[in-house]
Amino acid sequence: MKALFNKIDKRELKKALYSDPQNRVTLSFYKYRPIESPQEFRDNIYLDWESWGVLGRVYISNEGVNAQISIEKSKLGGFKEFLQGSPFFEGTFFNLAVEDDGKSFFVLKVMVKKKIVADGIDEGGFDLSNCGQRLSAKQFNELTSKPDTIVVDMRNHYESEVGHFVNAICPSVDSFRESLPVVEKMISGKKSQNIILYCTGGIRCEKASAWFKHKGFQNVFQLEGGIINYYHQAKSQGLENKFLGKNFVFDERLGERISNDIISQCHQCGKPCDNHTNCKNDGCHLLFIQCEECSNKFQNCCSKKCQEIINLPIEEQKKLRRGVKNGPKVFKKGRANHLRVI
Questions:
Q1: Mean pLDDT of 170-191
Q2: For 163, which of 12, 98, 102, 334 is 20 to 30 Å away at the CA?
Q3: Tens digit of pLDDT for each residue in 140-153?
Q4: pLDDT at 22
Q5: Residue 226 pLDDT > 80, yes or no?
Q6: 84/171 same-domain check
Q7: How many structural domains does the chain have?
Q8: What's the chain's Rg over C-alpha atoms?
Q9: How high is the pLDDT of residue 116?
């Protein structure tokens, strides 16, 4: 029987990916549709997609599927036909990456989760299928030009920090589950106004739009396909691009440029910069914004302390990491005290 998970060291996988001459493309898609047996569904997905040479990260739950993957460009058409030929994925919308070197993922991970988007919702009567009206890029531009329209970024603070739509409300939150009550409070008393929600590829604002409709907001809209689809539509149709900066992505690239605007600063020196990185110290891996000059100065680390650690012998580094839980530090995504406050 074929293995149902990867058994190869990630360093070998990365090396193989970077030496592979085949062109790969990155795409994302999701489907909110009930799954009775997520584990069985997960195992079948892994076997099927692994046979196509798919790499990426896939979440499976009772509420559906959330996938960010890469595949050889020559296999893309066949793979999409294969998926849409199944009842579950019929009608699925696929988002192709904006800036893509084909090196976004180096392993296939398919995981069963409680929800494909953690939301903290535990309330009866919430109908996920009753979501907001979908907007094309053209419709989005037209509706946002009206003075009474409210645009809300449903992403986390470190995502909107490097890029967001003009005049968008960008809540200072670390997770989607935090954003729902925060946004609800921010737009309370405006239940009759036009509320447009957006996110990276559409999955978060689809759930959020259904939640706010459940909470009594009357005119809720969502940007179809999120920022990624907006960029492609605006470019192909010659529309005004109302997005400023970069679109943060959750893969090896960490971002794709939507406009030439740089709206954020290096967390270490304050220079204009929108390049995210993870601290090179394996005992830290803090996500933060770092310019090229600071990258050279600190050797891709977030602090002098981490820089000192990476220059120690490997065995000493392992001793320092032993028993240390850095989850909260990683979770805060750049809210560390030692980083510059901009």
A1: 94
A2: 102
A3: 999 999 999 999 99
A4: 85
A5: yes
A6: no
A7: 3
A8: 21
A9: 96
pLDDT category at 332 given cuts 50, 70, 90 is low
- 228 vs 95: CA distance, rounded Å: 7
266 counts as catalytic: no
User: What is the rounded distance in angstroms from the CA atom of residue 131 to the CA atom of residue 137?
Assistant: 18
CA–CA gap between residue 191 and residue 217 (Å, rounded): 4
CA atoms of 208 and 84, how far apart (whole Å): 26
Q: Stretch 182-203: mean pLDDT, rounded?
A: 96
**Which of the following is catalytic: 131, 199, 205, 284?**
199
Q: What is the pTM of this model?
A: 0.90
Residue 331 confidence (pLDDT): 39
Q: Does 104 share its domain with 149?
A: no
Q: What is the pLDDT of residue 328?
A: 41
Sign of the alpha-carbon torsion through 82, 83, 84, 87? positive
**What per-residue confidence (pLDDT) applies to 333?**
63
Q: How confident is the model at residue 329 (pLDDT cuts 50, 70, 90)?
A: very low
Domain boundary among 208, 237, 266: 237
Burial 38-56 (b: 16+ CB within 10 A, else e): beebbbebbeebbebebbb
Check: CB of residue 41 under 8 Å from CB of residue 61. no
Q: Is residue 337 part of a domain?
A: no
CB-neighbour burial class of residue 188 (10 A; exposed 0-12, middle 13-18, buried 19+)? exposed
Rounded to whole angstroms, how far apart are CA atoms 229 and 140? 12
Q: Break the chain down into helix, strand, coil percent, rounded to 5.
A: 30, 20, 50
pLDDT of amino acid 326: 58
**The amino acid at 256:** E
Range of the domain at 216: 133-237
The residue from 50, 83, 112 where one domain ends is 112
CA 185 to centroid of chain Cα atoms = 24
b/e per residue 77-97 (b: at least 16 CB within 10 A) = eebbeebeeeeebeebebbeb
CA–CA distance, 244 with 161 (Å, rounded to integer): 10
In angstroms, what CA-CA distances link 180 with 130, 200, 335? 16, 16, 20
**CA–CA separation, 322 vs 282, rounded Å?**
11
